[in-house]
Amino acid sequence: MKKIYSLLIVLLALVSLQTKAQNICSSGFATQFLNGSTVKFNPFVTDSPLVLHYWNIAQLGGNFYDFSQSVSPTITFPTGTFIAKHNIYRYNPNGVFICTDSSLQTITIAQGACVFSAYYNGNSNLSTNPEHSYYNFTNYLSISDSIRWTYGDGTSSYAYHGLHTFANPGIYNVCLRIIKRNANGTLSNCISEYCRLDTITPPTCNLQAFFTNSTDSIPAPATIQFTNQTVNFNPTDSITWSFGDGTPNSYSVNPFHIYTTPGVYTVCIRVKRSTTLAGTPACVREFCKQILITGPPACNLVANFTWYRDSLPNVAANTIHFINTSAPVASGDSIRWTFGDGSTSNQLNPVHVYAQAGTYNVCLRIIKKINGVLTNCISEKCYPV
User: Fold this and answer.
1) Taking CA atoms, which of 140, 166, 170, 255 is between 20 and 30 Å from 133?
2) 60 CB contacts (<8 Å, ≥6 apart)?
3) Are 178 and 193 in contact, with CB atoms under 8 Å apart?
4) How far apart are CA 22 and CA 27, in angstroms?
5) pLDDT for residue 217 is more than 60
6) Contacts of 307 (CB under 8 A, 6+ apart)
7) Using CA atoms, how far apart are residues 324 and 334, in angstroms rounded to an integer?
8) What is the CA radius of gyration of the chain?
């Protein structure tokens, strides 16, 4: 008798454990209609994260409609009949699978239910302007329905998508309100509105004015190219150059400038970016540096030359070779020979044939050039030949 009693206790314990296992794996759920078309699904078992929930919603006939992994999702339906399937998977705290279960319910949405929700999203680019673009993503929206945007600054719009420029920084309550129309075109009582706070901030002044120039020291007259290297520079930004020599400013992006006299000049670049936000100052940045324009070098040029008569056979009589011995002479310097008989040459070491014997006053004239420009450094030497 005692053995039978013990066996009965064991059997009752097994039944109790089996019943408990079934309860912890129950996928049953209740439906709660929040309005004529929005349903909240409430599962019997909710002790996540040990239980995973999968909700599959399909129209009657098997067409997919919605899916969710929320514990208790809320779904808005259009008119029609839908099948809601709930699957659960239970694991123990060590991640070991214990059991699974699924259940079904039929959801019917009556004709004429208010089955849409107003919603929008938007973006803006405040680095250049305070313009916002709002995109209407309302579901089940007809082109005939009434649409109204209010931007929180006293203005409104009736466009399908909203595009608005805010005049001042601040926080604005932007709302999209939709009213469904009846078949005869009159407004119905089916209304949905979605609002969101948008913060309009002035653009950040991220300009860093800077420039480079072709050289820092060059003899006058000097042509300098200046190159704008401003960080975050936009083509619409205004730019002003001052060259420090009293000449008019330049508004080119990369100007050239000619300095006519030696000296130290302070060159500045000023970059300005305007904004249309009222009360917001323009973004202005300036960079200056000094450049040195030197005077002409000392004129130490000494012109000189030698000559000899060619005595080779088959060479015309009175053929004279002239050798330029001037110092210092550069390849770009201006060279001019006059041979005393009305002839001239610009060669470094010319050869000249005299038509008649006689004594001729031959002169060599050299003018120094700096950067291709003639200077006042001139030297000349003449000899009777």
Assistant:
1) 140
2) 80, 81, 82, 83, 106
3) yes
4) 10
5) no
6) 320, 321, 322, 323, 362, 383, 385
7) 13
8) 47
**pLDDT for 310-327, tens place per residue?**
877 767 778 999 999 999
**Beta partners for 211?**
228
Give Cα separations from 368 to 8, 191, 329, 349, 376 (angstroms): 125, 90, 8, 17, 7
Quote the pTM value.
Answer: 0.40
**Alpha carbons 237 and 251: distance in angstroms, whole number:** 11
Please give the structure tokens belonging to residue 164.
């608005």
- Long-range own/partner contacts, residues 179-183 (CB < 8 A, 24 or more apart): 179/145, 179/146, 180/114, 180/116, 180/142, 180/145, 181/142, 181/144, 181/145, 181/146
Taking alpha carbons only, the member of 195, 175, 191 closest to residue 35 is: 191
Q: Kindly tell me if the per-residue pLDDT of 11 is higher than 90.
A: no
Over residues 183-196, the pLDDT tens digits come to 788 888 888 888 98
